[in-house]
Design goal:
The protein is an alpha+beta fold. Helices cover 32% and strands 25% of the residues. The chain has a single domain, classed as Translation Initiation Factor IF3 (2-Layer Sandwich). A hairpin with a 3-residue loop joins β3 and β4.
């Protein structure tokens, strides 16, 4: 189990109000480790400016498949 999933399970985290990611181009890698089966943040903010085009497209498709709306400008995306 990825680290975040282990931490959420250990501390019985079932709800996240907000989760903000800014790891200079590795945001998609972090997002993929979130345990969405057990919890989903009400607000997720991540920086997509430094993502490689393929990672940005894959990340956008990930949200669309789940029916999650995202908004953003040139630097960050806000998901609700």
């Amino acid at each position: 189990m990825p680290l975040l999933g282990s931490l959420f399970a250990k501390h019985a985290v079932t709800q996240l109000d907000a989760f903000i990611i800014d790891v200079e181009g590795f945001d998609w890698e972090i997002i993929q480790t979130l345990p969405f089966r057990h919890t989903h943040p009400t607000l997720l903010v991540y920086e997509h400016l430094h993502l490689k085009p393929a990672a940005d497209a894959e990340c956008s498709a990930f949200w669309k498949r789940r029916g999650i709306k995202f908004y953003g400008g040139t630097l960050t995306r806000w998901l609700f």
